[in-house]
């Protein structure tokens, strides 16, 4: 909340919104002029926004909904659009959707002064004022509309504190009815549209599952949760799940709910957003566990299910004691891990060869196997593949007891086929159910990833990519002992590399003396390429030169150097990895 003392109160909004050249009106989207003095609202919100801004375009419909609801309730409230658009046409098109007033786009001086007055550093930005005094109620209007909607009116500090007290009291006195019901709705629905009384949930454990249609991590999570749900139902446990949809349209809601065996809060019900705020939703998937008394037992058990998969049902109702037992079972399972326990599920006891032939997993037993998680759509994966193919061929020349299995995250068979065609190794079929389980076992959060499995079927390392990039085929068989040996050899080579180089030198590209410095990766300020191991550095100026650049006048210098390797929804590609959001 902003301190009201820093708000100018000279004449209230009449003075704040008028211009120095005498403009005393605002506009409606019909182009009608409205005298500022005629504004009767006691609370006025200044909405800094622009059509080119995606977050603004997402927030504007929510503000329109809140505005219309407050007006229909007879609340004394007005909004004034302060545009950040780049031209009149963009302003007109954006303003045409808004039911409130606006500062004329032509009055660029007034727009600039309002931005300066309220120190607007980003949009959307909603400053809410006392219309009479000009006092700032809050500069956090966007957050308050998101969190509380119309309940935040008139957006004063007192009102927000009151809402927070109500939320605290609601948590202290939480019941299954206060969580899921409203004054006008005492039921939940099935995916067939049947109404189920909330009272049917009394005395049960209830999982509150937040859902967004089509979001990969949620789709994968709910498919596992469905198996747990059915298992708990089969053994007679009193357990129910309630879907809390965060989708904004009925089609998305119906699509995500269609295959779910549990209940849901009806689409568009404001209780969904309220629950997201109530449980401080910060990421998906999220599953809140409610006890038989209606109190919250665990704010989020999604990680437990992610870690243990369908076996997580054995820890129900997820008490500390049950989780400890499950962890011990998981540890024992890991210790007894074999290649077949990883790659064989029911009738799926094979991988694919280059000609599409089924290769029995039993033929891989006793070999060092790399599980290669990758996808054609991933730029870092495409950049890494030639390196991996080259090192694979080098290893195979010396070691026949070695293989790679491609585990694809592609969506289309054509993409899978094209990418796999450039690989000389084996693969799981596209969409194979083993891919999801392997991703969970090895906690794959980004691609490309390489997991090394030893001849005994035990995990050698969950990150074979790093040593393979650093040492190439010499990293085989990726054991800790081998990597330590390579690191010692590398360290010796690095130290030998610098023998004969001056400890300090001067260079025409920099005024200060440069000192030979041991380092990791850096960008050379001479050739703009990446370097590692050694740099001629000025720490004061954060200036680096490759030794070959620093010493070029004295003859070429050989040195080790590596260049940095140059999505669908739910992934972000950064540097040499594409990660799940």
TrEMBL record:
Which keywords, in A-to-Z order, does the entry hold?
A: NAD, Oxidoreductase, Repeat
The yes or no answer to whether the keyword Repeat is present is yes
Annotated SUPFAM superfamilies: Cysteine-rich domain, Thioredoxin-like
| InterPro entries membership | C1-like_sf, DC1, Nucleoredoxin-like, Thioredoxin-like_fold, Thioredoxin-like_sf, Thioredoxin_CS, Thioredoxin_domain, TryX_NRX_thioredoxin_dom
Q: Which GO terms describe its molecular function?
A: thioredoxin-disulfide reductase (NADPH) activity
Q: Cite the EC number.
A: 1.8.1.8
A Pfam family that this protein carries is C1_2
Q: What is this enzyme's class at the first EC digit? A: oxidoreductase
Source organism, top-level taxon: Eukaryota
Q: Which reaction equations make up its catalytic activity?
A: [protein]-dithiol + NAD(+) = [protein]-disulfide + NADH + H(+); [protein]-dithiol + NADP(+) = [protein]-disulfide + NADPH + H(+)
Annotated Thioredoxin domain residues:
1-165, 328-488
Entry's family note: Belongs to the nucleoredoxin family.
Could you tell me which PANTHER family the record lists for this protein?
Answer: THIOREDOXIN, THIOREDOXIN DOMAIN-CONTAINING PROTEIN
Protein name listed in UniProt? protein-disulfide reductase
Source organism? Oryza nivara (Indian wild rice)
Q: What is the lineage of its organism?
A: Eukaryota, Viridiplantae, Streptophyta, Embryophyta, Tracheophyta
